Amino acid sequence: MTQTLYERYGGFATVSRLIMAFYDNILDSDKLADYFEEVDMRRLIDHQTKFISSLMGGPASYSNEVLRNVHKSLNVDHESFDEIVLILRQTLAEFKIEADDIETVVDAIEERRFVIVSEEKTAT
Amino acid sequence: MTEPAKRSPVIAPLDLEHFNQILLNNVGVAIALFDLNTMQILFNNVKFHELFKDHAANATIDQILGLPEMPEKVQLGEIWSQEIEIKIKRRSSSLAVQISRHALAGQDVGVVECHNISKIKELEYMLESYSKMVEKNARELRREKERAERLLLNVMPKTVVEELKEFGVTTPQRYDEASVLMLDFVGFTEMSISHDPTAIVSELNDIFTAFDRIVEQFGCERIKTIGDAYMAVSGIPDPTVDHLQNIAHTALLFRRYIERRNRTSAVKWECRIGIATGPVIGSIIGVQKYVYDIFGPGVNLASRMESVSGPMQITMPASVNERIAQDFQTKPAGEHEIRGFGKLELYHLIRSIDKQGHYIL
Predict the structure, then answer these.
(1) Measured in whole angstroms, how far is the alpha carbon of residue B226 from the centre of its chain?
(2) Per residue in A47-68, pLDDT tens?
(3) 3-state class of B111 per DSSP?
(4) Do B119 and A33 touch (CB under 8 A)?
(5) B39 to each of B58, B99, B240, how far by Cα in Å?
């Protein structure tokens, strides 16, 4: 069996550090910080760690249904989504994730774009 | 001779105040000094400013920390500590705050130290949730393992499953003496063609399930079924002195079950049973698709006994009859030529006798 990205890059230890750095970068972004105004960052970081882990072939899994529900009230637009993906790319690169593997993770997130982005907002 | 000058430490006149400034701004802790009466900040280091941004310059210390009752709580010579949550520029942080009280040049001065423990808190939270997830996965794995084990227990004896679990392989076991029962049904092939296959399988399933319970009741093991044939053994894998009695009782109950069933069932079943005793080898056969099976003279003889049985008869050799005659009523069935065993005196098992000499089955 081939190793998953999750295993190859050091599992939970790496992903958790990566996600903490990711949110540090997000909170520095004026465009994005508003989304996180009222959010319990601990829970968010925890969920995001599991989510990214699952995209990398690690434990845990999130159905699109769950993702849609948690993003429903946030009115995420495409621009913010793009910004988040950009920051994730940068953070993954900071953590020396290889270019091919960054694409794998980003592709997996792009697949879920329409689950996360609220379409009403983008129409306006 | 005096020591060379270069060896003695040369103490340059040190600007202590400057040194303290450097020190205060380079430790990894946010530090501020404040007047305990006015709550005005007298001094704060760079880290403190990084943490509280412009608040550090514009607000009093109790406002910054959100601790209005603080001064009363801080005693001279004591360190007062608390964890607080602050939110500066949309960024929440957890801080471990320590305040101590000092008399400094006639002034009542408080020293605040703030450690940013947000990362630790985040990690703590994550660790807890992660370990819950791991525990949940472990529970599921355990359940899955138990399920697999139950499946294995259906097809092989418990001790063999345990051996397989512990060592990954099993060694064939030789049992010097075990008793074997072989059963099949008269005219099953014809029955299976003349009846609806679903109905016949369901009937057979019903009967074998009942047999399994009887087998268990007498501490025997079901080895396998092949089509309409059923094979059980006593004395494997745990040797027992009563193996013959157990297998004889099992045979009688099998027959009685069929008799009673036939009274109410549309399909009439007739079984042939052979029982025998002898050396037997028990082993797992196969690698990917493995089954537990038994071989040896005991098995062969039981099979021959079954094939010479008439409908609803239980047949055994004289060697078995001798050893169970006390507990069972039997009837001579004459001498037969048995392939691989030569001429054998055979008996039919009729019923069992209890300690008071009454017939029971």
Answers:
(1) 32
(2) 999 999 999 998 878 888 888 8
(3) strand
(4) no
(5) 12, 13, 89
Kindly determine whether residue B121 and residue A37, on different chains, have CB atoms separated by under 8 Å: no
Q: Environment class of residue A119 by beta-carbon count within 10 Å: exposed (0-12), middle (13-18) or buried (19+)?
A: exposed
For B358, the 3-state DSSP assignment is: coil
The tokens for B103 are 């008399």
pTM of the full predicted structure? 0.57
Nearest-CA residue of chain A relative to B129?
A46
Identify all chain A residues contacting B88, using CB atoms and an 8 Å cutoff: none
Cβ-nearest to B122 among A20, A50, A59? A20
CB-defined contacts A:B, below 8 A = 38
Residue at token pair 């609806």:
B196
C-alpha distance across the termini of chain A, in Å? 48
Give the sign of the dihedral formed by CA B287, CA B289, CA B292, CA B296: negative
Supply the ipTM of this predicted assembly.
0.70
Hey, are the CB atoms on B126 and A49 less than 8 Å from each other? yes
Is the four-CA dihedral B15, B21, B27, B33 of positive or negative sign? positive
Q: What pLDDT shows up at residue B183? A: 96
Helix, strand, coil share (%) of chain A residues, nearest 5: 75, 0, 25
Least confident of B48-52, B204-208, B328-332: B48-52
Residue of chain B with shortest Cα separation from A26: B91
* CA–CA dist A12, A16 (Å, integer): 6
Q: Which residues on neighbouring strands pair with residue B332, listed in sequence order?
A: B347
Q: What is the pLDDT of residues A64-116, one digit of tens each?
A: 888 888 888 888 889 999 999 999 999 999 999 999 999 999 999 999 998 99
Determine phi and psi for B275, rounding to 5 degrees: -125, 145
Give A-chain residues touching B129 at CB under 8 angstroms.
46, 50
Q: Do B122 and A45 touch (CB under 8 A)?
A: yes
Q: Which of B92, B119, B133 is closest, CB to CB, to A20?
A: B119
Q: What is the pLDDT of residue B8?
A: 53
> For position B76, what pLDDT does the model report?
75
